[in-house]
């Protein structure tokens, strides 16, 4: 009993870390935004007045971007968007692929749906997903480009829905193929033949007989697709296709600064990537948090799958 509890300790610790940061992020607008330093327009360093950007040594703990917004406040604010967008998108893809595979159990579904998704899966392997997303999303981004004098929240929501819908569609074919391959393998097992001989339907076998195998597969695929989606967010942000849209600020007569509206983490990385040499902290600090979040997710996955294997033993 003690060993089982000890094995669950890493899972609780990792989940607690994620939930703690999520709680902080959700409390940002109603509470923390009134306490934290959000923007530093100027400060005195070594007896001289300086203007942004400020290094982490000049403005604790993580410095500011080129217009003075603190990286610390942006990271706290943006985590909830990174977490919930990635989570909901991955759950929708997993549930939809499961539903589609249930439909393929019928003759009509196996003749129409399965070849269709297999075709798109092969097509998407020929075209790298980042470039495919760039081709599909960029035209909508140009149509919904606004500046500080023309911010339209409804347009931002519309752009988010377009981005998520395209990301959703691009990820579905491969998931459908993976689930179909696993179901084919399970239906060929001896216990599946025995169940069918005794009169069990395919739907009942999936619901009961295959439940342990499908649960473990779904858990692994969920974390895999979540990590892939988080990686795709960064690819989009590199091309300034930020989740939620872009906000263009005119710094001077010849210089503009394109920033993410939602402050989602991948957007924080993408909006400063061209200034990596001059203000490296604006890229490396959000990137470190992004990498740590992915490592936490992988740790949670290993703890969950390890616990399931121990239970089965």
UniProtKB/TrEMBL annotation:
Q: Which residues cross the membrane?
A: 12-31, 81-103, 123-140, 160-179, 221-241, 281-300
The protein's UniProt keywords, in alphabetical order, are: Membrane, Transmembrane, Transmembrane helix
Q: What is this protein called?
A: Peptide/nickel transport system permease protein
**Which organism does this sequence originate in?**
Carnobacterium viridans
């Amino acid at each position: 009993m003690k060993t089982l509890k000890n094995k669950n300790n890493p899972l609780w610790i990792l989940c607690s870390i994620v939930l703690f940061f999520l709680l902080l992020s959700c409390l940002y607008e109603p509470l923390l935004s009134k306490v934290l330093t959000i923007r530093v327009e100027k400060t005195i360093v070594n007896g001289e007045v300086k203007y942004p950007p400020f290094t982490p040594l000049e403005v604790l703990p993580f410095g500011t971007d080129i217009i003075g917004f603190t990286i610390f406040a942006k990271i706290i604010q943006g985590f909830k968007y990174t977490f919930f967008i990635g989570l909901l998108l991955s759950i929708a893809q997993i549930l939809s692929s499961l539903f589609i595979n249930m439909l393929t159990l019928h003759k009509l579904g196996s003749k129409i749906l399965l070849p269709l998704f297999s075709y798109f899966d092969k097509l998407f392997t020929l075209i790298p997903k980042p470039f495919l997303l760039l081709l599909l999303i960029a035209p909508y981004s140009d149509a919904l480009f606004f500046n500080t004098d023309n911010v339209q929240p409804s347009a931002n929501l519309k752009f988010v829905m377009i981005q998520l819908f395209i990301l959703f569609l691009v990820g579905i074919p491969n998931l459908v193929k993976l689930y179909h391959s696993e179901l084919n393998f399970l239906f060929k097992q001896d216990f599946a033949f025995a169940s069918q001989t005794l009169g069990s339907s395919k739907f009942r076998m999936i619901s009961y007989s295959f439940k342990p195998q499908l649960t473990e597969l779904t858990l692994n695929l969920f974390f895999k697709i979540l990590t892939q989606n988080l990686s795709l967010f960064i690819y989009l942000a590199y091309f300034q296709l930020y989740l939620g849209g872009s906000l263009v600020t005119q710094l001077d007569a010849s210089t503009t600064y394109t920033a993410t509206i939602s402050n989602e983490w991948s957007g924080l990385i993408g909006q400063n990537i061209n200034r990596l040499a001059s203000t490296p902290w604006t890229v490396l600090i959000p990137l470190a948090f992004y990498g740590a979040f992915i490592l936490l997710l992988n740790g949670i996955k290993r703890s969950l799958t390890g616990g399931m294997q121990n239970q089965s033993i």
